[in-house]
Structure formats: C-alpha cells, structure tokens
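ugh ok fine here u go
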Amino acid sequence: MNIKKRFIAAILALITTVSLVVVSSTAVHAEQENSEFEFEALSSYPFGHMSWGVSHMGLDKLQKKLEQSGRALPEVRVAVIDSGINTSNPFLKGRYTDDGYNFISNNNDISDEEYHGTTVSGIIADATSSNVKVLPIKVNGANGKGNMKNVSKGIFYAIEHGADVINLSLSSEDPNRSLTILDEAIEAAVSRGIVVVAASGNQKGDIMYRYPANKSNVLTITSIDKSNVISENANTGDGVDFALPGVMILAPYKRAMFISTGTSLAAPHAAAAAALLKTWDKSLTQNEIKDIFIKYSVDLGAKGYDTTYGWGMIDLSDFDINTEVRPTQPATEPVTEAPTEPVTQAPSEPSTETVTEPVTEAATEPPTQTPTEMTKVLLGDADADGEVSAIDATIVQRKTVSVNVPVFDAAAADVDRDGEITIVDATFIQRWVIGVSCPYSIGEPI
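structure:
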C-alpha cells in the first residue's frame, strides 16, 4: 500500500472514532465532528489541498490562474474574528499578519487554546495564494466563549487594519430577532467595500433566529457535503446566500490536522473565494462579489433561489481573469432603517452573560457654544486622513472611554461643536457614514 493509500486509510479509521465538540456562548455556537491525527511537515503537505472544498469550488484553478498571471498579487487581508490562531502550526507559517489583537485580554496575545480559529484560518490559507493573509482577532477564550461586544470591537479593528474580508464563523441566539449590537460595525465594514461572511449555524433550525446570520447585509453560508446535500444540522431559511463545503473537512489544529463538520467550516470557503476575487480586483464591493458568486453558482435544490441552498454552490473553475468584467449593475448601498436615537456602545469587561441590547443615548439639540480655535478642519475627520469614516467614529468612541488612541485633532472630532469629545460625536459620524441624516455639515471647512 503506497503512502497516499495508507494516509487515506488512516483518516477513514479515525472517522469511526469521531468525538463531538460543542462550543457555545453568546458569541459562538459551533458543532464539529473531529478526527485528529499527527502529521509532520504540514507546510509541505503532499496531497494537494487539504479541504476537498477547494477543488469542489474551483478555487484551486482560480488560484493557479492568478499565480501564473505574471502580475504582482496584492496583499489581501481576511480578518478571522474567532478564538485566535495557533502560530506554531507549520501550515500557517507566513499566512497571518503580525498585528492581530486579543479583545479578551486587551493585548496582542492571539494564541488559540480552543483551536476553532486555527481551523477556520487554515481553510482560508489552504484555499488561497500566499498573498492572502489572515488577520487574527481573538474574541473567544479557551472555553470557546465570548461576547458580542468584543465581536463588534473586532469588526471595527478589522476595518482600521485594512481587512478586505471578514469571516464570522460564530453566532448568537436571537429568538426575538431583536439583536443589533453588531449592526453599526457591519454597516461600517460593508460601506467601505469589505466583504462580511457569516456562518448560518448548526442548530438544524431557521437562520432568522441566529445573529448575525439573519442580517441581510452579510453573506450567510450554510453547509453541504461532497454530494451537494445540505448538512444534517445546518441552519437554513430565507436569507441563506450560498451552500458550501462544510462536511468532513480536513484542516489544521494544534500541530496536527483534524476532520471537522459544521457551517463554521463552510463560511471560510466563501471568505477564501472572496479573497481570491479581491486578488483579481481589490476594488470589488461585497455586492459585486455576491453578483459574481451568483453568476458562477451551481443551482441546488429548487430552481433558482431557495431557502435551503440559497443561490447554490459557488464554482469559480471557469472564472477567466483576463476576460471577466465587473458586474454591470452598480452595487447598491445596504438598506438600513434610520435609528430614531443614536445607538452607542461602550467597551466593557468580557462577559458570558446573555447579550443585551446596546445602551442608547439620545442626541440633544445642537448647542450654541462654538470653540474659538476650530478653524480649517474637516468636522468628523478624527484621524486627519482627509475622509470621514467609521474609523473616525471608533477613535472618538475610544477617546470617550479613555482607551489609548492615536493622536488626532480634537477640533475635528468635536462634530457637535460643544467643545467636548463625547459619544454623541461618534454617533453623528457613524450615522453620517452609513447615509443616515446628520444635523451637521460634516466634511465642510469651518
């Protein structure tokens, strides 16, 4: 028996001794069937791509076209907001950035004691070229638990650190469909052209009760097996966008690999596909990438869109990087309901308590006081980069809670012109960025 057959036989033998690992919290709920085995020299993995999903989706072919194009491939960052990353796994060497962050300990320790984030990151690395880097953002600890407040911070951090794609292989129960804690962060990311991918969840239920999978402006991914049949426990429902490989996926773990099943593994296949399209054209928006995905999807289930498989299974095998053109329809801004009161969120200590609605603070009538030293500044441009963006709102918000932030022009951040930097300023900036009416002429010299 040659080495490849022995290798496959070992996998099959291990599958019979599968153990169930359930990770659940206000931030993550992932059900995985894992078979772990040691394998040296992962960096020179000899049997092609680990995940069968890579070839199933044609990502290997697209990757090869890009690598052989003769063009310098741009760095594309995929933020994995999860449990961190195992930096000692040789397969991931050189595939993650050095500016990851830990929102549990508020430091740069991105070590992964739970290994869920390592698996997700490994799938992305497996399916993409070396120009694609994982930006590891840790929001869940060794017990797999965390909270959505940290996830929100993680999304804003990803925006600030140049993410092109954000992967959320996590969810929270949303029985009343009332959670909004990530809404502003997701809106800010999508408005800047970042693709946000979310796993549908593994409760064998309807995505309408899982957050943020039930958001209309994320790409919600459910899971299928090699026969393109929906996974046994995968959530489905109105709003599922695509059904991608997520059953018996081989991926990195500690210093080994394991076989895992769940929508947590399907989502990074979509993130990887988006990263390859961003390699082809960095300026593509989420809506444009979604249009390309639909165009190159294999229809599954009922003809056309259906609530089990969404638009089907993405297959980019025939995507021609030389002749393909951008979608002709311009991307539309995500539809949002204008808040009646500014929604704000102050960072707090990590908690495993049930997620509650974010605290709101009503904006008061514009004060008449005008600081005397505010001249020739762009109102709202806290980081002085010439643009008013979600990053400015984040900087102001951090300033109000005394978190260390980069130096910025206080006058520019004082949007309501009351002589103080407050949460109200951050709210005004954020509302302006997502196109909601703002009572001040942000961006206009004064």
